[in-house]
Amino acid sequence: MARYTGPVCKLCRREGEKLFLKGERCFSPKCPIEKGRAYPPGEHGRLAQYRRRRASDYSLQLREKQKTKRIYGILERQFRRYFHNAEQMPGKTGENLMVVLETRLDNVIYRLGFADSRAQARQLAQHGHFLVNGRRTRVPSYPLSPQDTISVREGSRKLTYFQQRAEFLDEGSVPDWLSLNAQTMTGRVIRLPEREEIDTDVQEQQIVEYYSR
Question: 41, 101, 108, 109: which could form a disulfide with 121 (CB 3.0–4.6 Å)?
């Protein structure tokens, strides 16, 4: 399964903002953005922040698409497929796209608090630590629907990671479209999320305009 394996802090620097790709590290002084390095990596990155060239519409649309891909850990081919699927759904294409991304298994694992980042959630899913409706699922991109249940596999609950994680699960911190039973380490998709319930800082209309060129 294709995925980005390079240094993720460079991705945040390229976008000039925190994408929260490394969990707790993003909130620590080690974060490059916190160190004042919110400029593109590379030899000419520092000079780029002093250029006053006005960004074109295409540039703004491209950067928004790239930022969204990086936040959710998706490469171009799969992201384009998600967009085409969103076009076929009733309603606004941009909002449909955000719903499709939010209801991926790895994102729901992250939203429920079982992982510090989407990358960590992806790894946990690939290692088979979760059940979806009682069946072991190793596909991080597995699309979830309302009333689907996500639970930590019984054998995995004995691992030190999940035993420590259980102490910090907070049922009140999950989004309203999800529910969590911290005692049984089980979550459920109550319904599809509304756009205002998705706190990802993305201007999805720019992505729609990018693919509509």
Answer: 109
